[in-house]
Amino acid sequence: MSAETPVDAPVAGAGTFSPDNPAPVIEPPRARTKRTPRATRTNFEMYGWLFMRLSGIVLVVLVLGHLLIQLVLDGGVTKIGFAFVAGRWASPFWQMWDLLMLWLAMLHGANGLRTVINDYAERDTTRFWLKMLLYTATVFTVFLGTLVIFTFDPNIQ
After folding, report:
1. Which residues form a coiled coil (predicted)?
2. Which pTM does this prediction carry?
3. Residue 4 gets which letter from DSSP?
4. Per-residue DSSP letters for 100-146?
5. Which of 77, 70, 145, 69 lies closest to 107 in space, CA to CA?
6. How far apart are CA 71 and CA 64, in angstroms?
7. Residue 59 in contact with residue 104, Cβ under 8 Å?
8. 134 pLDDT more than 60
9. Alpha-carbon gap, residue 21 to 68, rounded angstroms
């Protein structure tokens, strides 16, 4: 402190609030209205938050295991090709591993992007259409990836 500042002077942000100096009021980003009654509230956001934490842990194990097995133990990138994938996906274990990785990664990413859309899209219609686009892309990618994993034909010409 400088010599000009008295020691007993209140410092901004130091928590010295009084009736003459009230704390600032922080408004919620989107307050509830009559159109969104309290009875419609659920724990969906809590479940989404919990899903992000749990799926993140499982994804770390799946992805690091995938990288370790594919790149370190199986000889690196040079060995990965059509025959390598055909050999892997002949086993139900590797199909399930890749399927779980695909589903968790897509749902984890879609849930994160849904949160970003909810935070930053201000208009209800914009938020609705962005989420519909997100959900459509997620369902399409999960469906197509699942279809490829289970209908992969190593005898294709």
Report:
1. none
2. 0.69
3. T
4. HHHHHHHHHHHHHHHHHHHHH--SHHHHHHHHHHHHHHHHHHHHHHH
5. 145
6. 10
7. yes
8. yes
9. 59
Cα 60 to the chain's mean position, in Å?
A: 13
Place of tokens 């956001």: 45
More reliable by pLDDT, 153 or 140:
140
Q: How many CB atoms lie within 10 A of CB 132?
A: 10
Long-range contacts formed by 101-106: CB under 8 A, 24+ apart: 101/59, 101/62, 101/63, 101/66, 102/142, 102/145, 102/146, 102/149, 103/142, 103/146, 104/55, 104/58, 104/59, 104/62, 105/59, 106/138, 106/141, 106/142, 106/145
Structure tokens at 41: 């509230």
DSSP three-state, residue 23: coil
What tokens does 121 get?
């899209």
Which tokens hold the place of 3? Answer: 């010599």
Burial (0-12, 13-18, 19+ Cβ within 10 Å), 52: middle
Q: 98: how many CB neighbours lie within 10 A of its CB?
A: 19
- Give the tens place of pLDDT for each residue, 97-110: 999 999 999 999 99
Q: pLDDT tens-digit profile of 35-65?
A: 666 655 678 888 999 999 999 999 999 999 9
